[in-house]
Design goal:
This protein starts with about 25 loop residues before the first strand and ends with a strand. With about 160 residues, the chain is α+β, with helices and mostly antiparallel strands. It has four helices and five strands. A five-stranded antiparallel sheet has the order 2-3-1-4-5, with helices on one face. A hairpin with a 6-residue loop joins β4 and β5. Belongs to the MoaC family.
């Protein structure tokens, strides 16, 4: 098998050729959180923010972002995802926890899609609530699970 690299023979950046890799079931889970003032979380939960259903819009934004990751991340393969779920959970007194699960059967993994989904969902929460809480923080975006492919399974500690 050819070495997988993002550089061609002249040292220029290129998309990795995965055509020789076997198709396998692949999955990735990423997590992150948005920390905010307790009053902001209360308004999100009550549905009283000026921009409406913050968590519903963030869920949709995360799903859409996972599907468009190759448009956002240079050299990322466009993928036919078979499943994307975004779970947003209030974590009183001051945070929303975000988890994205992305799956496909293919030749390359979906870690970037899961990480992009969490990040865009978090940015959407920030955007929808920034008028009431500019001090929000997006934290701890990380890969927590990866399965499938030659490198096998990864579980974060």
């Amino acid at each position: 098998m050819t070495e997988l690299t993002h550089f061609d023979a002249q040292g220029r950046a290129t998309m990795v050729d995965v055509s020789a890799k076997a198709e396998t079931e692949r999955a990735a889970v990423a997590r992150g959180r948005v920390v905010m003032a307790p009053a902001t979380l209360e308004r999100i939960q009550a549905g009283t923010t000026a921009k409406g259903d913050v968590l519903g819009v963030a869920r949709l934004a995360g799903i859409m972002a996972a599907k468009r990751t190759s448009d956002l991340i240079p050299l990322c393969h466009p993928l036919m995802l078979s499943k994307v779920t975004i779970d947003l959970t209030a974590a009183p007194p001051d945070a929303v926890e975000i988890e994205a699960l992305v799956k496909l059967t293919g030749r390359t993994g979906v870690e970037m899609e899961a990480l992009t989904a969490v990040t865009v969902a978090a940015l959407t929460i920030y955007d929808m609530c920034k008028a009431i809480d500019r001090g929000m923080r997006i934290e701890a975006v990380r890969l927590v699970h990866k399965s499938g492919g030659k490198s096998g399974t990864y579980e974060a500690e």
